[in-house]
Each structure stands twice: as C-alpha cells, then as structure tokens.
C-alpha cells in the first residue's frame, strides 16, 4: 500500500527556501536524483530547443575543487550534489533533431517542421544576442523547476551566483558551446533556511501600464 504523502504544487512553492547548510552524510538515491532531473527537464523552452544541460557533481574530490571557485562556500562540498546549470549557446543545432522527432511522431507536418527550422536558424543567424539571451532565459526555467522538484521529494536546494565562472569552465572542462548560468546545491538540510520577508503585491504588480 502506497502511504506516500502527496503535497500540492502550492505547498511545494511555499516550502522551498534556500538552504546553505547540508548534512554531508545525506544521500540521494540515484533513482530519485534522476527523477528530479527528469522533472527539471520538462520545463518549457523557446521552440522546444531545451537549452539546458545539467553538470552534476557528486564526486567528493571534484566538489573540493569547486570550493575555492565558489569562494569557499562550504555548501558546495557538504551538499550531496552541486549542479552546474548550463545554457546552450548553440541551441539552434537542436532544431533538426527536435523537429525530426516531432515529425516522426506525428506532432507536426513536414511544412511546419521546415518552417520552424528556418525560423530558428534565421533568428540565430540574424541576431547576435539571441544565443546568450535564450541560453540564460531558458536554462533558468529548468533551474527553478529542478528546485521545486527537489523540494517535492523532500530535498533542499540553493541557487548560487557567487562563483568564478572562468575558473569553473577551466576546472570542469566545460565546452565553449555551454554557458554556466547557475550553480545549485542539492541535498538534505542540516540547518533549516532562515525566514525571509517578501514584498506585497501592492509593491510588485503593475496593472496594465506604468
């Protein structure tokens, strides 16, 4: 009998907080880690190009090498995994595989396939800024979804912008095609996140126009 307690999406969103202190002995079974990553990868993306890649670091020796790169934030070592979210700067190269498969499965017609590929390749060729903008924007969708998926399964995360990008690229041999957009720790909290205050909607929402 399945006694797993199901929680709503709303409860997951409200329960998720950034945790910076992890139990270094806390483990995540590979099956659960894979499921978290699978759910993260179901995020939306422009043209369905799926601009993200997940560089998952669980090797203790490699995590130790990340410590100075992350300005000695101990969480990158103590968390079960430190995940580097990568944005694909050459996502247009995924257009043909994506739409070939969509055609094969009957999701699109041949004409739609040709139109979409032409649109994608044209956009990337004609706008030099689009590659970086789309890599950052779309990989961010997956990063947020990963954090929510982790919380739904009882794990904690922390998105990190504090790291030396150039040193990270060199240490982990990240190809030039991929841009590190976020470092994210994942594991079991040893100390719960501290409470934060949030702006009210009266400060955040602009109705229709400024």
TrEMBL record:
Keyword match Oxidoreductase: yes
Pfam name, any one: Nitroreductase
Domain of life, per lineage: Bacteria
Domain Nitroreductase: 14-188
InterPro entries: Nitroreductase (IPR029479), Nitroreductase-like (IPR000415)
One term of GO molecular function: oxidoreductase activity
Statement: the UniProt record of this protein carries the keyword Cell division: no
Keyword vocabulary terms for this entry: Oxidoreductase
Family: Belongs to the nitroreductase family.
The protein, known as: Putative NAD(P)H nitroreductase
Organism: Brevibacillus brevis (strain 47 / JCM 6285 / NBRC 100599)
């Amino acid at each position: 009998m399945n006694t797993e307690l199901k929680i709503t999406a709303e409860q997951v969103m409200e329960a998720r907080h950034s945790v910076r202190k992890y139990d270094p002995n806390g483990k995540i079974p590979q099956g659960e880690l894979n499921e978290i990553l699978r759910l993260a990868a179901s995020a939306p993306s422009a043209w369905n190009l799926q601009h993200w890649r997940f560089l998952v670091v669980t090797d203790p020796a490699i995590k130790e090498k990340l410590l100075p790169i992350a300005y000695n934030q101990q969480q990158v070592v103590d968390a079960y995994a430190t995940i580097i979210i990568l944005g694909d700067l050459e996502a247009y190269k995924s257009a043909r595989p994506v739409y070939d498969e969509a055609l094969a499965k009957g999701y699109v017609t041949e004409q739609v396939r040709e139109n979409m590929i032409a649109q994608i390749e044209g956009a990337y060729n004609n706008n030099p800024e689009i590659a970086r903008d789309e890599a950052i924007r779309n990989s961010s969708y997956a990063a947020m979804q990963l954090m929510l998926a982790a919380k739904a399964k009882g794990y904690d995360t922390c998105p990190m912008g504090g790291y030396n990008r150039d040193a990270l690229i060199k240490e982990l041999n990240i190809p030039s095609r991929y841009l590190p957009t976020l470092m994210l720790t994942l594991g079991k909290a040893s100390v719960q996140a501290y409470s934060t205050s949030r702006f009210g909607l009266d400060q955040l929402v602009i109705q229709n126009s400024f």
